Amino acid sequence: xxxxxxxxxxxxxxxxxxxxxxxNIGIIGGCIIIKRYRFASFxxxxxxxxxxQEFTLDSIMAxxxxxxxxxxxxxxxxxxRTKGFPPYIYTGAYRITEEMNVVEVYDLLxxxxxxxxxITFHNLRTKKDFARSMEKQLMLTQDELxxxxxxxxxxxxxxxxxxNIPAMLLPDTYDVYWNISAKSxxxxxxxxxxxxxNDERREKxxxxxxxxxxxxxxxxxxxxxxxxxDEMPIIAGLYINRLRKRIPLQADPTIKxxxxxxxxxxxxxxxxxxxxxxxxxxxxxxxxGPIRIASKRAIEAVLNYDKNNYIYMCAKxxxxxxxxxxxxxxxxxxxxxxxxxxxxxLKIMK
Length: 350
Known about the structure:
two-stranded antiparallel ribbon
């Protein structure tokens, strides 16, 4: 049976209309997908994803969970199935911002374009404290850091010893890469140390008859003696007087360091007998290195020490944390008796 021309024309028209409808549906669907992936924000707040050596896609998704809407995670998972995801990506920190869409997040995570992170350390005593703090903030381990800081050759190359390398560490805030190596981190600390110790500070140290390392060592003692800013330069001046008169420092904080107990409230004769180069009652001069990582405030107090005639100091009997200073032994003995009376009244024996 023949189909007349009018019917053929009508069929062609229907087919054309159907094709146009399908094309439009495809365009609309494509626009929706493009809008969803290209324009929809991936997150409502900035955050950082950390990729360590034990990387898996699941570990990244787990970090994002709770940080972004569930639909964003679903879109990212779909995209990784479509485009693929490398079995290994560069370690580091990837900063994801609220301006990014899912495609940009995918591209970032597979690019190796890592971001820096901000590390901070303050109020630390030992190398181990520093290493532990860095392990919490960076990808490295405290064992890696301690191995280098206890390595004599490594320290010697930087002009230090394992005892005095804490002098190289200046408490502050720094921007570094999260996957920085232990060596690179210490190289950065050396760079910051050299920047800090400019000609002006080195000249002040020279006038005090101290090297930069000795300034940091004395600053660590001063900082253990007090956290009161206006007393720091006075105490620094007192100890510089003792050094110049060749009188042993007799600094109680060095005894606490020597016996490994900074919690001691009272220094007894048994403590003064400890055989240690940090026992400044038995050994003249500064100890082999800092007894804590000295703050810049304490270092500046030593560089700008108070030019006084004090030789002795003793905690005040009001136990306020402040000190009485004396130029003579008679004055000091009186101050010491008052202080020990206060300790006895409170039954503080150790």
